[in-house]
Each structure stands twice: as C-alpha cells, then as structure tokens.
Write a structure and sequence with these properties.
This protein has about 475 residues and is of the alpha/beta class. It folds into three domains: about 230 residues, 3-Layer(bba) Sandwich (FAD/NAD(P)-binding domain), CATH 3.50.50.60; about 110 residues, D-Amino Acid Oxidase, subunit A, domain 2 (D-Amino Acid Oxidase, Chain A, domain 2); about 100 residues, no CATH class. Helix content is about 40%, strand content about 25%. The chain is built from 13 helices and 20 strands. A seven-stranded mixed β-sheet has the order 7-6-15-16-17-14-18, sandwiched between helices. Strands 9-3-2-13-20-19 form a six-stranded mixed β-sheet. Strands 1-12-11-10 form a four-stranded mixed β-sheet. α2 packs parallel to α4 and α8 runs antiparallel to α12. It starts with a helix and ends in a 6-residue tail after the last helix. Bound molecules: flavin-adenine dinucleotide. The site of flavin-adenine dinucleotide has 38 residues, from α2, β4, β10, β14 and β18.
Length: about 475
Amino acid sequence: MSTQEQSAAAATTETRSPDVVVVGAGTAGCYAAATVAREGYDVVVLERKSESEAGHIACGDALKGADAFPESIPKSRIEPAFTNTGVDHGRFEIPQEDTVLEIPIPGELAVIDRWEYGRRIIDGAEDAGAEIHYDTVVTNVCQEDGTGRVTGVEAIHDGESRTYDAEFVVDAAGSLSILQDNVDFAESTFDTNVNYTHFCSAYREIVRVDDPVDWSDALVFKPTERAAGYLWYFPRTDTEINAGLGFQMTEEPMQLVDDLKRDLERRPEFDGAEVDDKLGAALPTRRPYDSAVHPGYVAVGDAAGHVNPTTGGGIAGAAYAGKYAAEAIVEAIAAGDYGEKALWEYNERVMDHFGARYAALDVYNILSTAVDVDDLMGLLAAMPGEKLAEALYSGSTSIGPKLALESLYKSYGHWETILNLFRTKRRADELLELYEAYPSHPAGLEHWQRRRDDLMEEIYETTGADPKY
Ligand SMILES: Cc1cc2nc3c(=O)[nH]c(=O)nc-3n(C[C@H](O)[C@H](O)[C@H](O)COP(=O)(O)OP(=O)(O)OC[C@H]3O[C@@H](n4cnc5c(N)ncnc54)[C@H](O)[C@@H]3O)c2cc1C
C-alpha cells in the first residue's frame, strides 16, 4: 500500500475500545462474553455472519452434559432448543458383521435444533450485557512491539475498516482460526504445533421423513464403506434427522456429499425424504492445546482443540472453556496484568475439567489409524453392549481385562487386537496421569512437554501408528 493509500485507509478506520473483544459468536464466544459482561466489563463480540445467519453452525446436534452448563447463560434460555431429550443409548451398526450393538449412554443427552440454540446463546450473551457486532470479519490482530502483547484486532464491517483496541482478545473463531495465523507467538508458550491432519472434515444434512423412525431414542453410528470414517444419524425429532459423516484428514479424502447420499438411499426409512439444510466444516479431533494463552490473548473452544477427539463432541468443552477464559481475564484485568502467567489458571482448569481426558482419548484415535478397521469392528461385534458401556464410561483400568475375560470365547480370532487394546489403554492411562500433573506455571511447561513427548513416542511404538504431533 502506498503512503497516500495508507493515510486514506487510516482516515476511514473507525476505532472502538471495549475492555474485551471476543471473536466469534459460537458457543465458546457467547459463554466467554456473557461471563465477562456479568462482571460489569464492556465486551463486544465480533461475528462475521449476518444477524439472521449467526448461530447457523455445522454440527451433529448432539449435546452431552447439558444438565451442567455454565450459569452465565441460564439453562432456561437454551432449553427450548432441546428438541429430543429421550435419547439414552448409542446404536452401532456394523454391516461387516451384520450386527447392531446397543450401548447405554449415561448422563443427560439432548439432540437439539442447533440454529435455534445458536440464536439463543447469542441472545443470552446480549442479556448479560455483551454487544454483538454482526457482519464483522476479523482480518488481523494488533500486537505491541517488544512484548508481543495482543492489544486488539482489525476487522472489516460492511466494507469499512475497523480497529478494536482491548485489554484482552478472546479467540473464539472456531477451527483453523485466522487469528492464529497472524499472532506472533514468539514471546509465549502458546501451542503452535497444529496441523491440518489433526482435523476431521465433516458434513451433515437435516433430513425430514414422513413416518417416524423407530430409533428416535438412539444416536446411530456406522463405519463408512470407503476410507476410515463414520456416519451418524441423530434424531432431532422422530421425523427430523441430522445425518452426517466425517473422516480424519490423515486419510484418503471421502466424497462426503455423495457418500452420505448413497447411504441415505439404501435406508428404507429415508424413502421420499426431504433435505432441509446442508452444512460442512472442519473440527479438531486432536489433543487440546498445551497452552492456549498469550499476553493479552486467549483461545477457546475449537480454536484451542477443546473437542472430544473420539466423538467429535465440542459444544460442552467450548462453553466451559469460554467461562474459564473469561474468569481468568476478569482477574487479570483487576490485577492489571496481561501476561501469560496471569492467564495460566485457565489452562489448568481446562486440563483439570476435560483436557486431560480428551488427551488420553486421543490415544485411541491414534490407534485407529494403525489397526485394521474390519478387525476392530469384528471385535466390537463380539462384545456385549453393557460391558462395552462400562469399559467406555468407567475410566477404570480394571474394566479392560474384565471385559476381555467375559468375552474371551466370543472374541476368538480377535485376541491380537484385544492385546493391542490393553497395551494401548495402559499407555492412555499413563498419559492421563501426566496430564493430571499439568504444570501450574508456564516455566514448568517445557519439562512437562518433554515427559509427555517421550510418552507419545512409546504410544506410537505400542500402537504402530505414525506420529500425530
Ligand atoms: C459436522 C460437525 C458435526 C459436529 N457434531 C457435534 C455434535 O453432535 N455435538 C457436539 O457437541 N459437537 C459437535 N461438533 C463440534 C462442535 O460443533 C464445535 O466443537 C463447537 O461448535 C465449537 O464451538 P466454538 O464456539 O469453539 O466454534 P464455532 O461454533 O465454530 O463458532 C465460531 C464462530 O466464529 C465465527 N468466526 C470465524 N472466523 C471469524 C472471523 N475471522 N471474524 C469474525 N467471526 C468469525 C464463525 O462465524 C462462528 O460463528 C461438530 C462439528 C462439525 C463440523
């Protein structure tokens, strides 16, 4: 840009100065904004979508743990979007084995009208006092020379440049956030070990049928025929189904639209079905960021890898990450401290609540890239559903051998896979233990990462998988 053009641009750039700027009006952004606003600070949420389109986000619409969402947006606000609260089990279709496995799902689960939920959390953030600026695309960050502190963002609103100066910026811009391409993280321990192969590419349609499906109390899962991916059918109601599929980006790309269409055509319950809506996106199926803080800046939700890497469930993690980040920011503003040390408690709370568990679950994702899918499906088909549920949800190491012993006879032919699973589970437990000892200070991160990386080497060796990180 010439000097003349630069001064012309500067003349038209409008500057706003709230206490906190949140980029993205998704779950993480709305819960962060509501929490900050309730403490009496000025907070502006910047959302690239229009007011009518905001909240329309690609999702399977399954909301786990809705009974314990953060309070900054009252549950009564979002509850009307819960269209199906009668789901209590997973239904795993294994066509290779001609088997259907039913596994109970503990805890509160709802299939939701995702767009309605999206609108309601935006309203909830506004009720708490946050301002929402729609049609505002964030294009860059502002950083202080020397310290590297993030001091705001640059955006385009209705074709006009805008600068937002703020004490803190919350990056809630979702998967592959553009902000992280622009921040220079040299002055902090912010996790930059992020690669597209850590993401899953996913697509879903909202499909309407005339006659009620007879599995409206189940989340239906099915492995895809080609490439290692999976399909889902989640009933928003007994006649409105969220049907989708995804694959990890380490694998051969799938033809998501065609592959879904083919499966829908084969299912008699979808005869004459109408498609109401189509959306696709990437989601992080990886471990959470080792650190998601930098002076003046915090990343939350998908922008920090806060998704359960085995199920793709990210709504609950995003809501809590938003709350924890906001609480750390409020304390840091009060202390007048913008450094990563002042924000570190946020990392600790994320690891303590769900991050450690997600990092351990990621080990099974790593394993799945190395095992034969048919063999794994054969093994699953040989397992009793109740026992599998125990193994999945108890988190206890003793369940593994119990599961195997009771099913040993049935699972003849899959013993090698079982042995592999046991060894992997032991490694996952070791990793969980290490994450439970996540450092309480940025200065401790490097040593902790070395120990973690050594353990990851052992995990790659045990599973036979290529290194993921
Ligand atoms: C196909 C699919 C199925 C899924 N199924 C489930 C499921 O069943 N259950 C579940 O719990 N999770 C599911 N997930 C994951 C879940 O949707 C995410 O983890 C969750 O939405 C993350 O919330 P977030 O607030 O971090 O990001 P998002 O919800 O992605 O919100 C980010 C917001 O930032 C805005 N934005 C981005 N860039 C900019 C910019 N430069 N300027 C301004 N605004 C910007 C976006 O428009 C968006 O509104 C699924 C994801 C996909 C893709």
